[in-house]
Structure formats: structure tokens, C-alpha cells
Amino acid sequence: MSVEANARLYIKEIRSQYTQEQLDDWQAKTIDSGRFFAFDHFGSMENEEILSRIRYMAKALDCKWSS
Q: N or C: which end of the chain has fewer CB within 10 A?
């Protein structure tokens, strides 16, 4: 959502500057779009396992990165 909003929405003081309607719109365009996949590894996996999961997401889920 922060990327879509071009703002650091994870910071409460910044997020509070926007209306709930704006936040809902950004959520619909990102998290609720069906194109959002999260991978939380808590830093406890080996590098090869993380890379393996990223490869899977790129190939099987057709995940891409854009800036």
C-alpha cells in the first residue's frame, strides 16, 4: 500500500494524514487485488531456502517486481 500511495503508511503519523477512503482504495489496488503474495521468513531460514521460495513465487505465481 505504501508503494501505491507513495508514502510510508506503516508510520502511524503519516497514515493518519489520509482518509479511510484513500486507505481503502490503496488496499483494494494492492492487498485485495489477488496479486499480493507475502513471504515472511522471520530471518530464520537458510539463504538457499529463501531463494527457492522466491523462485517458486516468480515462476509458479508469476510474481514480478516493479518500481
A: C
What phi and psi, each to the nearest 5 degrees, are found at residue 48? -65, -35
Q: What is the residue-level pLDDT of the chain in tens, covering all 67 positions?
A: 999 999 999 999 999 999 999 999 999 999 999 888 887 777 778 889 888 988 998 899 888 776 5
Q: Which position has the grid cell 503474495? A: 37
Domain extent at residue 42: 37-67
Total domains in the fold of the chain: 2
Query: What is residue 6's three-state secondary structure?
Result: coil
**Residue spans of alpha helices (H) in 1-67:** 2-5, 12-15, 20-29, 47-59
